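In this supplementary section we document a worked example of the pipeline. Step one takes a protein sequence of length 285 as its only input; no multiple sequence alignment statistics are reported here. Step two produces a three-dimensional model, which step three serialises into structure tokens for compact storage. The input and output of this example are shown verbatim.
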Amino acid sequence: MTGGAPGIDRLLSEWTLDPLSALLAVAAAGAYLGAAARVRRWPALRTAAFLAGLAVLLLAVASGIDAYATDLLSVHMLQHLLVTMGAAFLLAAGAPLTLAVRALRGSWRQALAATLRGPVIATLTRPAVAWSGFAAVLVATHVPAVYDLALRNPGVHALMHALYLWAAVLFWVPLVAAEPLPRRLGPVGGIAYLLLAMVPMTAIAVWLLASDVVYPRYASVSPEMGVSALADQRDAGAVMWVGGTVALVVAVASCGWSALVREERRVAAREAYADRRPHPAGGRR
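The serialised model returned by step three reads:
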């Protein structure tokens, strides 16, 4: 696509939503809302998170962001951050598997619950495995040969997006801790987990900032957009570094805040229990 570097208005307005993507999004939203209607007191915040996750995912893959991703590396990097740091987190926070277990009945419920307790899910959601999978997908897909293949082949490009989404969902699940899964991270483990996730993202960003043009596709296409390929690559590195760091720092702060809130609740519960206990002299305090 040519016509000069796009502004935010073109990135947000030039939609190319294909019927299949729209159908899948509507089906996912409908299934979620239908299940939520069958569950008593399902948190509205989780419903909002899931629907927002679908919206962010559509923004990443069907708006002008997707249209210009093959022309500008900086836009492509923004797209990847929306999928991994935005959509994946929100979809995981929506706890669709928890909702499904609570909404289903009979053998369907038992089968899903057994699958979630099985060895495959237990392995995939183990924090070390989830972190390693996410880091491996990030690093492997930025290898020039792999990246350029995805830019040339729409099928490979779609597979790359699927890998980003599912690797990121698995990455966030041990932190969100909303699903009925065997592996969960505590506050300290969650903070360490997030800080370590900055390592591969920072390494990719520094590599892009310090290197000459690494992807041949952008070397030939970016100048047609009126943008230097090297300048665009450095913008992409900055997007990865700053955007990824901000997202993870916010998540770290959230983990720390959640830990403080839980500790305050535990202290309040202990004090309330102590107040209810009989006084040593036989009375009540």
